[in-house]
């Protein structure tokens, strides 16, 4: 999903480090895994009124019904 400046994928460890750095900058003290951030993002998009049809391709789920879970 993310591509580095060197046109390579970030490692799992690299993504975790970035998220930790951004969380600290935002004043978030709770530990947040990439999966929790992902869940938070899709929940927030739903609350903002974004349609499932627009969220589903980014979620990686095969159907819109799986977003409801």
From TrEMBL:
<dbReference type="InterPro" id="IPR013762">
    <property type="entry name" value="Integrase-like_cat_sf"/>
</dbReference>
<feature type="domain" description="Tyr recombinase">
    <location>
        <begin position="1"/>
        <end position="69"/>
    </location>
</feature>
<dbReference type="Pfam" id="PF00589">
    <property type="entry name" value="Phage_integrase"/>
</dbReference>
<dbReference type="InterPro" id="IPR011010">
    <property type="entry name" value="DNA_brk_join_enz"/>
</dbReference>
<protein>
    <recommendedName>
        <fullName>Tyr recombinase domain-containing protein</fullName>
    </recommendedName>
</protein>
<dbReference type="InterPro" id="IPR002104">
    <property type="entry name" value="Integrase_catalytic"/>
</dbReference>
<keyword id="KW-0233">DNA recombination</keyword>
């Amino acid at each position: 999903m993310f591509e580095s400046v060197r046109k390579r994928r970030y490692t799992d460890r690299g993504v975790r480090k970035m998220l930790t750095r951004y969380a600290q900058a935002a004043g978030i003290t709770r530990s947040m895994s990439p999966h929790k951030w992902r869940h938070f993002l899709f929940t927030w998009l739903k609350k903002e009124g974004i349609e499932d049809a627009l969220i589903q391709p980014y979620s990686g789920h095969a159907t819109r019904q799986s977003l409801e879970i």
